[in-house]
Design goal:
alpha+beta; seven-stranded mixed beta sheet; six-stranded mixed beta sheet; 32% helix; disordered N terminus
């Protein structure tokens, strides 16, 4: 099998080396290759990464975290004022307009939040609006939001697109995904199953972009690379396997740029499973995995080892936590102490790189006394099994690690997925720890940054001690683009907002 993989990679490398030029992209457009289409461009129904990445280019956002520090900064809002611990005034910028030319007002902001809160709509963001006790329109540009209780991450929660009331209400509260109207830098010009075209929004309050965007869905990574090398596309981000990236780094017409990443890759353990209930077994898992070798061999060095959910450069990161470096002898001793030889099914997505990583990890686990079988699934099936608790161990990636409040969704006992619970319940490890719950609740309420950082430091130490998940790494964001594309900067959250500032140098 390994020889076949290497042969396949060699054939692609050879094809890249001898690739002929295809039809070049135009000077006024940027063609971006993606692996999957978004499900919804309506900001109230985000479910996948590309829902946000492409949708925000159309709708914009009240505040944005698309910056090197991931801090919330005003975009469509001019400012967010905290009046008291539960009251916020959101003031829009002067002159904000939707792409149809109509002004955005505080009424549109209020309508967006009210519609999200309506159970009949079925918004994926309803848990955010559940915190709001009252919404008051105070002027054409200012809306006051009164929360039920203090919630420290609330300004970050306003990383939210606004829908135009006059358009959506006329369509019964929804608009078709090929007719989304927003106030972001681009307007939706065309959408079908494999192609999304965005034209510059001439009314964008921060200035219209210089190019139009064309997103093309190409599911095969080899084909994506060949299209890019051939000149029929300009950019792709995090869609090309590491081995193929190496094949194009020396090509004169392309450049490869790396940026630090906020994506968290981890091994999740079902702590409700008898085989994994003993913390000694979970610690043995962590000690048996040679993460440095995996980063070096499978990711070609393009990742930073993780001690937990938060990367080292995050404002709330704490490195004062228990660590579990590669130590197979100690792993064997822990399993002997526990008196078990756990038989585990290891589930992963069917992506070739993720399967290859899982196979290496399974081999390392088996070498210290586990009995592990790897099974690969389509991603939707894998997520469904995790939600239902139908797994023992699995590898996952968590994008957009911005707010430490995410720790609450991942590990608080109230967030265990249950029948009928919202999809936002992410405690797939089924982990419950009263001390951790108390810290996560305090972190959500604490408004003082220094005290909040201390609370999350305790939470990180507790998680590293009890290991409901085994942290693996934070993968770099890797962009391959043509050399004449300028102005695009890689963001830690891998979003695409910088495309609004891109242009062609020809």
């Amino acid at each position: 099998m390994r020889r076949l993989v290497c042969l396949g990679a060699a054939l692609v490398v050879a094809a890249v080396a001898g690739c002929h030029r295809g039809p070049r992209t135009g000077a006024g457009e940027v063609v971006v290759l993606i692996e999957d289409p978004p499900q919804s461009l309506d900001p109230r129904f985000v479910g996948r990464a590309y829902d946000v990445k492409i949708g925000r280019l159309i709708t914009g956002s009240l505040v944005s975290v698309d910056n090197p520090t991931l801090e919330p900064r005003p975009e469509l809002a001019e400012r967010i004022d905290r009046v008291d611990p539960v009251t916020y005034d959101v003031t829009l910028r002067e002159g904000v307009r939707f792409s149809d030319g109509t002004p955005m007002t505080a009424e549109d902001v209020a309508y967006t939040l009210t519609s999200i809160a309506d159970p009949a709509l079925g918004s994926t963001l309803r848990s955010m609006t559940d915190r709001i006790a009252r919404t008051e329109v105070r002027s054409p540009r200012t809306v006051r939001l009164v929360l039920k209780e203090p919630h420290a991450p609330f300004i970050t929660d306003l990383d939210l697109g606004v829908v135009p009331r006059h358009v959506v209400a006329a369509r019964g509260g929804r608009f078709p995904d090929d007719q989304v109207v927003g106030a972001g830098p681009f307007r939706l010009a065309h959408r079908d199953a494999t192609r999304i075209v965005l034209a510059p929004n001439p009314y964008y309050v921060l200035g219209a972009p210089k190019v139009r965007l064309v997103f093309k869905v190409i599911r095969d990574p080899n084909s994506r690379l060949l299209v890019l090398v051939g000149g029929s596309a300009d950019l792709t981000q995090n869609t090309v396997p590491p081995l193929l990236i190496d094949a194009v780094e020396q090509r004169p017409e392309l450049r490869v740029e790396r940026g630090r990443g906020a994506v968290f890759t981890y091994l999740v353990c079902n702590t409700a499973d008898p085989a994994l209930a003993d913390v000694r077994v979970r610690r043995a898992l962590a000690l048996a995995i040679d993460r440095e070798r995996l980063v070096r061999s499978k990711l070609h060095g393009r990742a930073a080892l993780a001690t937990g959910l938060l990367p080292t450069w995050h404002w709330a990161y704490s490195g004062d936590v228990p660590r579990w470096p590669y130590d197979p002898a100690r792993a064997r001793a822990l399993l002997a102490e526990a008196g078990v030889r756990p038989k585990l099914v290891y589930k992963t997505s069917s992506d070739k790189l993720r399967v290859a990583i899982a196979q290496v990890i399974a081999h390392e686990l088996n070498a210290v006394g586990f009995d592990v079988e790897v099974r690969a699934y389509e991603f939707a099936t894998l997520l469904d099994d995790l939600k239902k608790g139908n797994f023992q161990i699995a590898t996952l990636q968590l994008p957009d690690v911005v707010e430490p409040q995410l720790l609450h969704r991942l590990f608080h006992s109230s967030q265990v997925p249950r029948p009928g619970a919202a999809d936002g319940h992410l405690n797939r490890s089924r982990f419950a720890d009263p001390a951790l719950d108390a810290d996560l609740e305090a972190g959500s309420r604490e408004l003082d940054p220094a005290r909040r950082r201390a609370v999350y430091a305790r939470a990180q130490a507790r998680l590293a001690e009890l290991l409901p998940v085994v942290p693996l790494w934070h993968e770099d964001n890797v962009v391959i683009m043509r050399r004449d594309l300028r102005g695009y900067e890689v963001q830690p959250n891998a979003r695409l907002g910088a495309l609004a500032r891109a242009w062609k140098a020809r």
